[in-house]
Every structure is written in C-alpha cells, then in structure tokens.
User: What shape does this take?
Amino acid sequence: MGETLFVLYVRDQAAAARFYASVLEAAPVLDVAGMTQFALPGCLLGLMPEDGIKR
Assistant: This one.
C-alpha cells in the first residue's frame, strides 16, 4: 500500500507553498509548475492550482 496523498486546489500555488512551508516549518519535497508536495508523517500534502481543474 502506498502513501496517502491529500491534494488541495489553490488559487495561487506559490503563495500557498510559502504559507504551508511556514506553517509546517518544512521545505517542499517537490515544487514544480502545477504541483507542490510536502512530506508529512504517513502522507503527502499536494498543492495544485485550481485553474487546472476540468469543470
């Protein structure tokens, strides 16, 4: 069984990444256009821009 991935769709990926880096006191393990990920105990937290959601 793999790690659990939680994805939050955000308006501003860069601003959200800065916010979560500050709150979690951790650097992202992945930070590329379209996805930022933070490694948390037992899971990953992903941030993706909401404009990429197919409606």
About this structure: The longest strand covers residues 4-10. The chain has one domain: 4-52.
